[in-house]
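Re: duplicated header lines in exported structure tokens

Our pipeline writes sequence and tokens for each protein into one text file. With two proteins the header for the second block appears twice in some exports. Here is an export where it did not happen, for reference. First protein block:
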Amino acid sequence: MELSKEQCREIIARRVAKEFKEDDVITLGIGLPTEVANYIPHNIHVIFQSENGMTGVGHRDLSAPENPKVINAGGLAVTTRPGAVFFDTSMAFTIIRGGHVDATVLGALQVDEEGNLANWMIPGVLVPGMGGAMDLVVGAKKVIIAMEHTSKGRPRIVKKCSIPLTAQHEVDMIVTERCVIDVTPQGLVLKEINPNFSLEEVLASTDANLIIPDYLTQKAG
């Protein structure tokens, strides 16, 4: 099934938002991951921390006037929730490096079978810097990758990353518009499949080996 980029992003963000529990402290990477804040269930209260110096980040409200002083790490204007606190970047990274973040949601260029992550540069392309991803993936208790399943038709979930790594063995979960995958010591376990896609479509668009539980095989059959 062909989905628009907007549909893919919403499917991914909505699914990631189901992973959190009451009072979790969460850091969202720039791009698609920031959209997760828009889909947190109303009965769950979580704290979003932004690596540029804020806790209590709210959802994006495009109808509200933008305040250039209240932005997320991607430079986008955001709302604040009651009790929001502002601080400098050194404090933000103290929170991250000190192990106080329950989960981080990041985008990726590639993730491989060992839970290795590549998301900060493409060889030959000038980048401004590595950002905070390297700190987040080793400091957060759970690392969730939120990304489209393929890029220009090429799989992003691969046997072995072919571009420079952000971190090794740190990814816990991958959420795409097609499926949800748990990263385990035994390998990548296919946890869920979007009903709009078949098992065969997921496998054909994934370069890595997937462990398929019996309940998914029976459902596909």
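Second protein block, exported in the same file:
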Amino acid sequence: MNTQLKLLTLITALAGVTAFALTGCGKVSETTGAAPPSTSVGTEIDDGVITARARAALLSDPDIKSLDLKVDTHKGVVQLSGFVDDPAQVDRAMLVVRAVAGVTDVQNKVDMKGLATTVGNKVDDSVVTTAVKAALLADARIKSLDIAVVTRKGEVQLSGFVDNQGQIDTAIELARAIDGVRSVNNEMSVKK
């Protein structure tokens, strides 16, 4: 079996197991007392498989720098986020992901990188990203595992699907409070 097929198989299996393990199975939230959005275990698994297939398709395309892209899926809608060098990469990524089985729509939440970064910027950005992720994890009001964090030259991009606008507002507030954050770009969407 070739390396890409092995990788796709592994990613698909891990996505399915992870989606199954993280599913709330209709439990009432302990922090808000509200019932979660109606998403079944099957939908969570399907979304995990779609995410894995989309990532594999992006990795296998030589025209796309897929490591610069984050992929998240909710009920078949794929959200692409991150920073890339060229708008043509975004167009190609959108085309590749639309061709993945099970994808019902693709949301473009990708930003352009702009000027080149230095090693110092990359280290600083890694520290900022880690601090933002830690702040999100520490706050019980939001489901931080649903939020991807990418930083470029102090600009933090938050993306993913969350339960409500309050979680978006809290995540933005927490990110802005971190030392080294110049700005926060909200690319999060409320689950439907």
